[in-house]
Amino acid sequence: MENLIRPVIVVGGSVLLTVLIGWATDLLLRKADARHSETPLWGLLRRGRIPYQLVLCAALLRGSYDQVKLLEDHRTGIGRALTLVLIGSVAWLVIRIAAAVVETSYSRYARVHRDPARVRRVRTQVSLIMRVVSAIVGVMAVAAMLLTFPAMRAAGASLLASAGILGIVAGVAAQSTLSNMFAGLQIAFGDMVRIGDTVVVDGEWGTVEEITLTFLTVRTWDERRITMPVSYFTSKPFENWSRGTPQMTGIVYFHVDHTAPVDAMREKLRDILRECPAWDGRACGLDVTDTTPNTLQVRALVTAKDADDIWTVRVTVREQMVRWLAKEHPYALPRVNTADATPPPARIPGARSSSPDGAAAHHP
Fold it and tell me: CB of 273 within 8 A of CB of 284?
């Protein structure tokens, strides 16, 4: 009877004590979150209540298991399993706490600094730092789990002896992966590209949506996702429209007839921009930039606060200007001239004409 009651008391007491401690800790975190609403730290720490309770339960069971006379034949296996659970839950809890601290620091920085570019840079660095911390903690947890097995400890000396050779082989085999990892760190702390930046890569225009240690995802304007290794951004040129200030200047080309009213088009451009909310009011202009035998090339210059607004301004100007020309000045639209050629003026008998070298010549 004692052999049955003691395990029940020990296991039940461990679980009950874990629930009580977890409930009390969560209650304290809720009160701290309500009292200090200016910082999200306490609310973020509550996300770690599950690994926290798992750590408590595994630690209590592991500490009291030797006192329980239960499953004597499997004592070693059960003890090692509890140790593995304890190591894994501790690693999980450390990652949650680190994430809460880093997220709190980023939130405070975002509230203090109003510059979107600096905030996006810190956000990129924070996300990559968390990935590095998670990877390091995960590797250490796996190593600690492996060292709980006697066979792994016995093989430790031989593993250390061959570590140099294995390191060289692994470095050669994972050369591309390591280069991408270093490229990811270079992007994060070199401020080359940030999450939320507008970029043009291989002719594709989009917004950087995710940056990891090995790859980068760009969301295009038509909702496609382009995933490429981060080493691409450290080895090839690309356009970053959000670098520095997000303000942009855009152009719209029109091909019109030689008789087009350019001055009236300038006035119409100003009218269109005054009614366009996406125009930031910095600059506008309309000039004739080229001519062909059939058309004039007219360039409209507009400005906006970012890449999304410059696209809106350009399509608005293009649409309304063409509509206005078709309605008010249809003759200004490009056309194919099918009229007969105008002959040169007829010669008047006895008139004087100039020779090719500019000298006057008399005709009889």
Answer: yes
Give the CA dihedral 65, 70, 73, 75, nearest 10 degrees: -10
Phi, psi of 323 (to 5 degrees): -65, -40
Contact yes or no for 92/51 (Cβ under 8 A)? yes
* Opening angle at CA 347, ends 341 and 353, nearest 5: 110
Mind giving me the DSSP string for 24-59? HHHHHHHHHHHH-TT--HHHHHGGGHHHHHHHHHHH
Residue 124: CB atoms within 10 A of its CB come to 24
Collapse the DSSP code of 338 into the 3-class scheme (helix H, G, I; strand E, B; otherwise coil) and give the result.
coil
First-to-last C-alpha distance (Å) of the chain:
146
pLDDT in tens, 8-59: 666 677 777 777 887 887 778 777 777 776 667 776 777 777 888 888 887 7
- Residues 193, 232: Cα–Cα separation, whole Å: 12
- Name 148's Cβ contacts closer than 8 Å, sequence gap at least 6: 80, 83, 84, 87
What's the one-letter identity of residue 181? M
Residue pair 264/250 in contact (Cβ under 8 Å)? The answer is: no
pTM of the model: 0.45
Which of 279, 348, 268, 264 has its CA nearest to residue 315? 279
Task: Compute the distance between CA of residue 221 and CA of residue 358 in angstroms, rounded to an integer.
Answer: 62
How far are the Cα atoms of 253, 267, 292, 329, 333 from residue 258, in angstroms, in the given order? 15, 18, 9, 12, 9
